[in-house]
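Comment thread on ticket #2218

A.B. wrote:
> Attaching the input chain for the structure job we discussed in standup.
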Amino acid sequence: MLPRTTPPSSDSATDRRPSPVGAVRSALARRRGLRLLTAGLAGLLTLAGVVVLEFSPATDVYQGRLQNRLATQLQKPATRVAYAARRLGEGDSLTRLRIPAIGVNVVVVEGTSASALRAGAGHYRGTPLPGEAGNVAIAGHRTTYGKPFADLDRLTLADDILLETPLGSYRYRVARQPFVVDRTDWSPVTNGPGRTLTLTTCHPKRSDRQRLVVQAELVPVEG
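C.D. wrote:
> Ran it. Output below, let me know if you need it in another format.
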């Protein structure tokens, strides 16, 4: 007697084949996973591009070429006229800044927008011009675009800061040890009595969490 065969059950291979609805859901899930993976990779590549742009020597090369053009512009008669009339535009040459103690030699432009600061350092609009009464304020990069303010924290009392403008040169002297404030604290660049100069940059390096500040006073011309 031959053994009785078992009829196909719900566990058979035939019944385990996915239904049309299940196949569609599976395909959609795979597509969603692929999209998420693609988006994630794109985000990582974008982030990597930003890191390379912001922290690579490429920004220093760009700043160096821009500085050559700004140095020429600073010497032009038209710049002298615009400076005297206070008509300098965002990104125009304003003054050469020298700090012998830390080897700084950079042309400062008018304005502190992101594009203006590609020059390395920019003058806060609305603050006095070099030599004038009040608080002249200048911001500068610490790790990119020539990093002119990389060693601002090394300045000490009595170090000189020189500003050479189209109308004359001025000597300031550090009057307070460099100090740190919160990024939202704008009090160091507000106007005040006397003839002062304030330099600001990011702190710590490669972070804008805080600001490093140096304050100096104008040295009277002798004689």
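A.B. wrote:
> Thanks. Noting for the ticket: The chain is about 30% helix and 30% strand.
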